[in-house]
Design brief:
alpha/beta
């Protein structure tokens, strides 16, 4: 019988999938030790499985695609990651929003950080598919919240689907703020969910100004599907730990990068 080190990639990925299916989740470090290969190799294995929709990538590992842990590993955990960075990004993004604007905020945890700085605005229209953002702005009397129709995604507490896009087309959306699984070149902004990317893509086209809100961990990462090409992006707001070389490469494309 072959040892873990002697397995072909396809055999190793099959065993990784079996392990994750049984355990519900696994970390890159644990899989690296178990299969006696580098963490780089394991990340490639998990990415391959994620692209086949057999597992869902998470920060530092993966969970089974049908795992009940998905709800807890998505919005709740994303809120707890890079909290200070997201707060600074949210505050910086909020300074770009004026009373009277119509603004789109997606269902990312960073967009939620923006909403938390908008409660004192007046005559502001927030268009969002995020239940968390809508709930957060209930106590903001000067903010009108518009939500498109669609189907509920429990893992992100959001509504997606083509049903609500016609509603959004009647608005002149000055700015759209988008979180992402990753920002890379030439892929642009990507998401691990094809459905989420398909929802965001036409909204990007409706926004006069497209602003990515990403902490430093998102730079260089590539998700399953792109929803905004580099030429669609006008600005990126990120934290000061973003990789210098990639920041310079993005700026050379004419994209404004704000470091906070």
């Amino acid at each position: 019988m072959n040892t873990a080190r002697d397995l072909y990639p396809e055999e190793r990925r099959a065993r990784i999938l079996e392990y994750i299916s049984q355990a519900g989740r696994a970390s890159v470090a644990d899989l690296s030790r178990q299969f006696s290969v580098s963490e780089v190799t394991i990340r490639a294995d998990l990415q391959s499985l994620a692209e086949q929709r057999l597992v869902l990538r998470t920060h530092g590992g993966a969970v089974a695609a049908n795992s009940r842990l998905l709800d807890d590993l998505s919005l709740a955990i994303r809120r707890k990651q890079q909290v200070l960075e997201k707060s600074r990004i949210g505050e910086a993004a909020a300074t770009m929003i004026a009373d009277g604007d119509a603004v789109f905020l997606d269902s990312s945890s960073t967009a939620l950080a923006i909403a938390q700085h908008l409660r004192d605005h007046h005559d502001l229209t927030i268009i969002t598919n995020s239940l968390a953002i809508a709930s957060d702005l209930l106590a903001a009397p000067g903010v009108t919240v518009v939500m498109p129709g669609g189907r509920l995604r429990r893992d992100t507490a959001s509504v997606i689907g083509p049903d609500g896009l016609n509603t959004l087309r009647k608005y002149n959306i000055q700015k759209g703020f988008f979180g992402a699984h990753g920002l890379s070149l030439p892929e642009g902004l990507t998401d691990v969910s094809e459905a989420e990317a398909e929802f965001k893509q036409p909204i990007v086209a409706l926004c006069r100004r497209v602003i990515a809100v990403l902490d430093a961990t998102k730079w260089g990462r590539v998700g399953l599907a792109s929803f905004a090409a580099p030429e669609d992006i006008h600005c990126v707001i990120t934290d000061s730990h973003a990789p210098t070389e990639m920041v310079d490469a993005v700026r050379q494309l004419g994209i404004e990068v704000v470091l906070v």
